[in-house]
Amino acid sequence: MxxxxxxxxxxxxxxxxxxxxHNFDILxxxxxxxxxxxxxxxxxxxxxxxxxxxxxxxxxxxxxxYFIKHKFKVNITSREFRVTKTVLAFVCWVxxxxxxxxxxxxxxxxxxxxxxxxxYNFSVFLLSVQLMYKYKKRLLRIILNSILIxxxxxxxxxxxxxxxxxxxxxxxxxxxxxxxxxALLITSFLFFTDQELRIKTLPFVIIxxxxxxxxxxxxxxxxxxxxxxxxxxxxFTKSLxxxxxxxxSSDSFMTTSxxxxxxxxxxxxxxx
Length: 272
Fold this sequence. Notes:
There is one protein chain. The chain is mostly helical and about 270 residues long. It folds into two domains: about 1-135, no CATH class; about 135-255, no CATH class. It is about 70% helix and about 5% strand. The protein contains eight helices and four strands. Strand 3 (about 260) and strand 4 (about 270) form a beta hairpin.
């Protein structure tokens, strides 16, 4: 394991791994493509909930490919290392509790499956940290394009099934609550990514409107309220950021004005 500082610069004698972030070969592109494919396939439930779906198989293959390519070397920042230790400790605790109950009740199947899901989710978390460390904004663009395709497919299924009705819609999910959770996650990721990439207006509107329509189609009261809260939070955060930018610009202007004189051409003449 290689630990880096908060900016992603490796600590110690492992600085050479920093150069690897800029080498994108065909295998790197395959890993990114398969990771993006996971988000497109995730809404498709071909079997009952609780069992691995096609998207999970793609994710496992992506993990295997990535960690074999990088010889199971893990690169994380010092801040991420603390979070990773906490998550790993929680997963170990869950496995221990499940093992105790499995032995006590003499029913291993359900408890082992539950533990396997926690291990899988931790592995996805660790892979996501690795990909973000290596590819940064390129990874965010891949995910953004993937969820754009995903919500368009879900909207097509929704419209093809007859659109809004008195019944709760599921599209390609097994139940409406999964659709509501999907829409909420899409909205959350959209707002987060917009801060990092400044998404263009058209894809931003398509994703946001589609996610909101799918949320309403699920008829999940909790999901709708959560999405409204998320929209309000985003609105107030944006408004606050704009006020802070105006205040900083005003302070900067006043500082410049105190040091110099501005003529009508916009040039600043500083007093010596």
